[in-house]
Amino acid sequence: MTNPSARFPTTPALVLIFAAYAAARVLEIVPNPIPRTAIVTLDVLSALAFALVDGARTWRLRGILVFTGLCIVVGNIGENLGVVTGFPFGRYYFVELMGPKLFHVPILLGLAYIGMAYVSWTLGALIAGRTPATPLLAVPLAAGFIMVAWDLAQDPVWSTVLHGWVWQDGGPWFGVPVSNYFGWYSTVFLIYLCFALYLRRRPAQANANHGRAAILFYALCALGNVAQAFGHPSPAVVQDPTGHAWRVADITAASALVSIFLMGAFAVLAWIRLDQHRQTATD
Questions:
Q1: Which among 35, 80, 161, 266 is most buried, taking Cβ atoms within 10 Å?
Q2: Number of structural domains, the chain?
Q3: Is residue 95 helix, strand or coil?
Q4: Angle between helices 107-128 and 179-199 in degrees, nearest 10
């Protein structure tokens, strides 16, 4: 069988995508005249492009489009339900930073699910195993934790500091409620479970090296979070809707720690597993 990656000469495209994503993360912390929404758009669309290009090498065009559809449908239903009812994330609403909305949820947020969901799935598949004998729930369970680790690092920055969305009742994690992370896990787990069922009769055709780009993208995201801790926040203190004051330096430091010791651990573990897969393939 022809390796699908041979039909997708994607290396130059991936280099450009990595450069665009890195530029977005730098622009987030360096003073510049570019509107914040434009920077968010570059961040989200570069991650989306990575998922589409790299995913086509593994699952072919049909597979990555199915994955994209699941992220858009399940993610938007979950987020709209959350805004309207408070379930399963908690009571919150979006403001102008995230751009135009589809119903109650910004279009960019719906697209943001795709990029990091793909990266997290790829790392989860490496860690849990990607053989026909791997249990159905193994990859969805692992990938869900990897994706929530990303949100654990990001959400206080994007909500409490940047006010991309507002948690109406605040929360113990720098203004974010604990329910948000259970809601996130349940939402992405549902996406992953549906996709795992889709793949049962359509196994991925990845070669032994597949996954390296996704690991690097996840690590680059973690590095971008760490870089935020070296900025000079203004204002230095922000308040959540309950009136609780939070030091921005504490929020970015916590984000950096999660990025190093949790996201970093997933990236290292996935890299070790990738090396093991490569050795097995050459034996």
A1: 266
A2: 1
A3: coil
A4: 70
Q: What is the mean pLDDT of the chain?
A: 91
- Provide the percentage of residues in the chain whose pLDDT is more than 90: 81
**For residue range 162-190, what is the model confidence (pLDDT) as tens digits?**
999 999 999 999 999 999 999 999 999 99
Backbone angles phi, psi at 77, to 5 degrees: -60, -45
- 29 token code pair: 């912390």
DSSP, collapsed to helix, strand or coil, labels residue 226 as helix
Q: What is the DSSP string of 28-63?
A: HHS--SS-HHHHHHHHHHHHHHHHHHHHHHHHHHHH
Q: How far apart are the first and last CA of the chain?
A: 20
Tokens of 33: 């005249």
The CA angle 263-267-268, to the nearest 5 degrees, is 115
> 257: domain range?
4-282
Written as six digits, the tokens of 282 are: 């050459």
Q: Are 175 and 159 in contact (CB under 8 A)?
A: yes
